[in-house]
Design brief:
single chain, alpha+beta, two-stranded antiparallel sheet, 4 helices, 7 strands, 27% helix, elongated
Length: 164
């Protein structure tokens, strides 16, 4: 019984291999151009952000060509609006593999985010843009950008006409 248990333990350790390696720590890491002349304007977010670039191996077929630290950093920076760099960064590599069944390789970066307030102020992704569509004299369809007040006025006029 003891020999069977030992054999199973050895077999499991061979088939279920995994490795996590700390590749290093960095004071600042970024994939974006940073204007260091404006460094005193940047704000450090105290929350830590995690970014990773992963590929899986199903049976023996990888789901992605390769993984890069750059993609892991981009993934982390993309989670916070206005992020330009990661500060106090830990870089890790993780891998896991069950032969002919499943595997996973990843680069993982974790750090605090350095935020450029000007990029956050210029981030209009949450702002709604209003357009008015019309046909011109040549019967071509045109779109023009309008203000929210104009949009509300047009919407109100259409509602009034529908009620009459």
């Amino acid at each position: 019984m003891r020999k069977l248990f030992l054999d199973l333990a050895i077999l499991a350790s061979i088939f279920f291999t995994s490795c996590a390696t700390r590749l290093g720590t960095f004071t600042v890491i970024s994939t974006k151009n940073i204007e260091w002349s404006r460094a005193n304007e940047y704000q450090k977010n105290s929350n830590r952000v995690l970014g990773e670039d992963v590929y899986h191996i199903v049976v023996f077929i990888p789901t992605k060509g390769n993984i890069t630290i750059e993609d892991a950093v981009d993934n982390a920076l993309g989670k916070v609006p206005g992020a330009v760099a990661l500060v106090d960064v830990v870089l890790r590599s993780e891998s896991f593999y069950i032969p002919y069944v499943y595997g996973k390789n990843a680069f993982i970066v974790e750090g605090s985010v350095l935020i450029d307030p000007k990029l956050v102020a210029n981030d209009d992704s949450n702002e709604t843009i209003y357009y008015q569509g019309y046909y011109d004299k040549n019967k071509e369809f045109k779109l023009s950008k309008i203000e929210k007040t104009q949009f509300n006025s047009i919407q109100k006029d259409i509602a009034q006409k529908a009620l009459n």
